Fold this protein.
Amino acid sequence: AQSVTQPDIHITVSEGASLELRCNYSYGATPYLFWYVQSPGQGLQLLLKYFSGDTLVQGIKGFEAEFKRSQSSFNLRKPSVHWSDAAEYFCAGTTSGTYKYIFGTGTRLKVLA
Amino acid sequence: GAVVSQHPSRVICKSGTSVKIECRSLDFQATTMFWYRQFPKQSLMLMATSNEGSKATYEQGVEKDKFLINHASLTLSTLTVTSAHPEDSSFYICSARGERSYNEQFFGPGTRLTVL
């Protein structure tokens, strides 16, 4: 069955530290993958997406993600976290033709001053 | 480009009343629209998929008579929560994709529904 898994429910990092949020997928074909950020009471903001090509994807707000087929992963990274990055992060995937997204359960990021 | 709006952003209603939420694609034609529901501190749950001019396809466990979806034009879809009850209180998010969107959905800002 197709799935998107975010193993970490909560992550706490200190401001200025590096960040990596994990996302694993299970699809029969190469999926299209997305990372979104959601602040409390707000909608989703797209951070970055992977469709094909270069497996290292650059996004907004200094985020990047790397598609690793061998590990079925699409982890989100940021070299130096800012207090404003505290939010909920969702990984999502879809495949050609279905158009439906499968969302991970989300990772809540807390940033310590 | 690819902006999706929702109206209203917040709505409070009494139990037993019906509430309509609008989802509009502002700068593209949305061939497919999706409606999601999100409970506090949880992920998005797909409720239904609608194609312009066709009946919506509901996900398993979603009551089609409770959540009426209309996708009458290429820029507008509506979700009507009929005879709302407190357990229908939630954050409702729509998204849309156009013919040139490939596999990407564009999300609206969401509507917070509170049923008293």
